[in-house]
Specification:
By secondary structure, the protein is an alpha/beta fold. The chain has helices at 13-22, 34-47, 59-70, 84-87, 92-96, 114-121, 150-162, 174-181, 185-188, 223-229, 238-248, 252-273, 293-301, 337-347; strands spanning 52-56, 75-80, 101-105, 132-139, 166-171, 196-200, 210-214, 286-292, 307-308, 324-330. It is globular and about 60 Å long.
Length: 349
């Protein structure tokens, strides 16, 4: 019963096989290989435009490098207070950005709204006394497993662009959001006003493969040196590219995301029927519930893995009972029905 995170799952077999195949023979390093060039063209086709693309091995590097590139050190990144860049990246955006500041904003269910953003942008004394808002960062899907609709993304990016902010999207679970909405990659990003996307594959079945993409290639001027200086230009770059080749082949990436989402939906439905309803709508591959202390103890004794969770984004009037704990349950492409059924049986008993 493995629900700690989707990064606890192994590598999708197709991707692992691709890494092995890439190990044969020789290839130029640092992204000058044929596989990298082919993957870059695949990204351009997927997003329906020319892109500047930079592959890196981990999501924290992708976000930190992208934000550092978009904002000067005296700039501010507007983000949700529970976003990954604010809570789980150990100050990497600030470090890579030479001291840029994250402005953490509240928002129910892990989402920002145009009104929240407008209010935050109205604060501050301006230069030279205050940091200057330069970037809006959105997480899709959010850290609470919810998904911004296309209309919500458009409304937020419109406010950001009115004020001269660039828009960054943390897409560690991009595929999960995409298949939930049933839209195209272009529609959910640049057509909705996103300027830079950090496209994640690691949580979805890769070994370690992320891509920073600039929808305006001119905006990426200097990014090759930033990635190198930041220590995230892999010498044997072909192994990053090989993962993406397999990830996109036959739309494997969408298949893996659908499996993870379907597992989360099944888990949520069964838990609700057992009297343990999800706190927020289950729109990607994360389920948040409150467990009684007794159920929590039984599940842990049976070997279930998951994390307790703290949040300030609970629905209005929702209260966690004194003898209950809020927990996060994350499904992956490898989650089985047997795991789900065993978890629910113990949780609801």
């Amino acid at each position: 019963m493995n629900f700690a995170s989707d990064n606890t799952a192994g590598i999708a077999p197709q991707i692992l096989d691709a890494i092995v195949r890439a190990n044969a023979g020789f290839a130029l390093g640092y992204g000058n290989d044929a596989a990298t060039k082919a993957v870059e063209q695949r990204f351009c086709a997927l997003f329906e435009r020319d892109l500047a693309i930079f592959l890196v091995p981990i999501g924290t590097a992708a976000n930190a490098l992208a934000l550092a590139h978009l904002s000067p050190p005296w700039g501010a990144v507007m983000c949700h207070a529970e976003s990954h860049i604010a809570t789980d990246e150990a100050g990497a955006p600030e470090f890579f950005g030479g001291g840029l500041k994250l402005i953490e904003l509240a928002g129910e269910a892990g989402k920002l709204t145009p009104d929240i953003l407008r209010l935050a942008l109205a604060r501050g004394r301006g230069a030279p006394h205050s940091v200057l808002p330069t970037v809006l960062s959105l997480t899709q899907a959010t850290e609470l497993g919810t998904v911004y609709t296309i209309e919500e993304v458009r409304a937020l990016t419109a406010v950001a662009h009115e004020r001269g902010l660039a828009v960054h999207m943390d897409g560690a679970r991009f595929a999960n959001a995409l298949v939930r909405l049933g839209v195209g990659a272009a529609e959910m990003t640049w057509k909705a006003g996103v300027d830079v996307l950090c496209f994640g594959a690691t949580k979805a079945g890769a070994l370690g493969a992320e891509a920073v993409m600039f929808f305006d290639p001119a905006r990426a001027d200097g990014m090759p040196s930033r990635r190198k200086r930041g220590g995230h230009l892999l010498s044997k770059h072909r192994f990053l590219a090989a993962q993406f080749e397999a990830y996109f082949d036959g739309d494997l990436w969408l298949t893996l995301a659908r499996r993870a989402n379907a597992a989360a939906s099944r888990l949520a439905k069964r838990l609700r029927a057992a009297g343990v309803p999800p706190v927020w709508p289950v729109e990607a591959n994360e389920v948040f519930v409150t467990l009684s202390n007794a159920s929590d103890a039984r599940l842990k004794a049976a070997g279930a893995t998951y994390y307790p969770w703290q949040t300030d984004s609970l629905p209005r009037k929702f209260r966690i009972e004194a003898d209950h704990t809020l927990v996060r349950l994350v499904t992956s492409f490898a989650t089985t029905n047997d795991e789900i059924d065993a978890f629910v049986r113990i949780a609801g008993s």
